[in-house]
Amino acid sequence: MKYWLLLFLSISGSFCYAQGSLNRKAQTFFEKAGPYIQKLDYVSAEQALESAVEADPLFQNAYLLLAGVYKAEKKYADSKTAYRKAILINKNVSPEVIYGLSEMEFATQEYDSAKQHFNEFLSLDSSSDRAKRAKKYLLDCDFASLGIKKPVKYKPTNLGNGVNTNSAEYFPALTADGETLVFTRQVNGNEDFWTAQFKNNSWNLATPLSAKINTTKYNEGAQTISPDGKYLFFTGCNRPDGLGRCDIYVSHREGKDWGEPYNVGKPVNSEYWESQPAISPDGRTLYFISNRPGGFGGYDIWKSTITDDAKWGPATNLGPEINTVYDENTPFLHADGKTLYFSSDGWPGFGNKDIFYSQMDDAGKFQKPVNIGYPINSFDDESGLIVSADGNLGMFSSNLKDGFGGQDIYSFGIPETAKPFKVSYVKGIVRDKDTRKTIESNVQVIDLKSNKTVFDDYTDPETGQFLAVMPIGSDYLFNVNAEGYLFYSENFELKAGDINKPYQIEVYIEKIKQGGNVTLRNIFFDTNKYNLLPASIRELDLLIDFLNQNLSVNIEIQGHTDNVGDAKLNEKLSFNRANAVYEYLLKNDIDVKRLTFKGFGASKPIADNKTETGRKNNRRTSFIITKI
């Protein structure tokens, strides 16, 4: 038997010991199929083999090879029929043939018959790699037979000719505002990044991402983009600065272009294979795929978190809660920071790689993965799913009938059961209050419930823009500061159950000068009381940092109330609240000579007291610069 035939039959699971046909015409067609298969021209191979079995209906070897060709073409029902015809001719076939038939029965949802034949295969072979896979398939049969009875809504939509072409497009990555798409396109074997903008309810014509990232010598792919669109992590292979065959690289966007990418280095990368990065919304944890030692299977999901000294920490395996003895790939952490989508052929599913999701509990532990459901998952490989920030839209690449050629990128509605936690975001520009020019400044967003920083980065140095994601269900401190300027304070209250539209704001900060005034939106007291609540501490610490960085600045702390109630009592309450802030600053080593405080009651409103919103704005703590 020729080597190509032995190789193909071994790969396809169709190897047997039957001889060729005595029918010369059938044998000629059979031998013609070989070169076609070598060229991966399965259409021509199929035609030749169909002619062979037409000339000799008892040509078992041709049926088995045809079953393998049908499988390669994903014609699973035809492959199953070819296997069955071959076995009818002669039941004395190898265990691999029984395995091949079982697999095609599974692919065509004949689960009872598939289980019967997988068990028959295991009675002949109980220790090979195929035996391990057959045991896993038996679990899949039980899972899938129930899963197909509860299909999820699934209607994939091609992103259109602005994104997709007759080349292959895959690995979509989307910013939190849903306006920028970055994806991989392969042309003549070379992979590069392309980007498109969502305008007027459609994707405009994609363009190459950046000449600083795309190369003609190397492939760029398997990327993720930070929610604000400023950091691109991607996979680069066989590069001179690589530590292994494939490493993870990062590039930072500056204005309209991207900076030179660099290898993120150890301990994320190693002498092994690292790929398919996924960055957390706070930019502090990088998830990725690696086959390094210490895992549970061939390819596992690992993570590394930035340490206090701004370096990537040790690579940690996500453990058996996520990884299996088989392969996991294409992780994607949603903007909620808690919902992980990934592909696996180890957890019970509908075939090869299925898409799963797992949500992190309050202790930071991922829960048991859940299959996203049928028919999103099928017998074929499904992978590379990303989910929009609002949790409604999924994107991945597939080779569907309505495509433009090769793989295309599609979108579809995420099933309710598989949706992430709700998030919102604040997007804006920071400007100088007097000149209206944009300013590079530091933006911080802090979850006041957990006291965790969810965003800490600088605005774009050219445009002054920023975007920060905030999961629904907490209160957030929002702070903007820049050298030589008064800081800006805001509070976002995102109650669970509310539908919070994204915040679009312009922040105006003024240079430090006498008379400059800042309202501290995150100083909190109970009603009619003046004891500082714990949620106030982060804002007070920011004020302390400001005073320590500007030692020539003296301030007056001012307390204000609305006009509800007795005026004298309001004035006393505002005085005591200002004093509480004053005392806190003194306890934290701010010189008493730099501080004064005063209570104004309702005498200096900044909003109309006729509405609750206005009254809430008037109940405030602020400070004014009295001397520089």
UniProtKB/TrEMBL annotation:
User: Is Signal one of the keywords?
Assistant: yes
Query: What keywords are annotated for this sequence in UniProt?
Result: Cell outer membrane, Membrane, Signal, TPR repeat
* Residue span, OmpA-like domain: 512-628
Q: Does the keyword Phosphoprotein apply?
A: no
Matching SUPFAM superfamilies, A to Z? DPP6 N-terminal domain-like, OmpA-like, TPR-like
Question: Chief location of this protein?
Answer: membrane
| Signal peptide as annotated in the record | 1-18
The superkingdom listed in its UniProt entry is Bacteria
The record's listing under PANTHER family reads: LIPOPROTEIN YIAD-RELATED (PTHR30329:SF21), STATOR ELEMENT OF FLAGELLAR MOTOR COMPLEX (PTHR30329)
For this entry, the protein name equals OmpA family protein
**What species is this protein from?**
Pedobacter rhodius
